[in-house]
Amino acid sequence: MPDTILIVDDEPDVVDLLVFSLQKAGYKTLTARDGNAALQKARDELPTLVVLDLMLPERDGSDVCRQLKADPKTAAIPVIMLTAKAEEVDRIVGLELGADDYITKPFSPRELALRVKSVLRRASGKPESSEVLKHNDLIVDLAKHEASIKGKKIDLTATEFKLLVMLLERRGRVQTRDALLTDVWGYEGDVDTRTVDTHVRRLREKLGKVADAIETIRGVGYRFTE
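and the corresponding structure tokens:
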């Protein structure tokens, strides 16, 4: 049976785009246009994952997420926040409420489908064994926990490998230093972000020419180019 994704958004065009993209990726979809309907449908249908807009009528996405995570029946359902708000504080609030990922509008439907897949994989506890990530001559084999360039293995630490995978999986999208600290290191709160800069520098040194694909976004973080 295909995984079921509950799409919660009050913009018809966005809903139609998400339904088309996710169904094309092999998922079954459900939709809700306001916060109250989203909670009811999530409790009745128990979807595999919820794509949840932050700005909703009746009940906003933050409250919907809070209610889902507080209810034992729905607490384990992963949530991806989808919103037009790009401020860092909104992202942090969403993650603190229990959201598993956060995407801002406008977004790439292909990226969203890939991130739905990634969140579902993490939620299921399945190893990323069948995944191979590629960028030109760089090949990252998640099953073997190996990275290579032109067939030559790169000697990466566990943290460097996880950082590389995170940037590759989210290529084209800027990753803030705080987000990387949370997702790669598991740090939350006031932690020195120079930890990220140091590891990125070491990773670049090991990647050679491929390191040019990792862009520094001044004052924000890093992005792996598409």
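(Above: one complete record from the training split.) Residues 4-124 form a domain with the Rossmann fold fold (CATH 3.40.50.2300).
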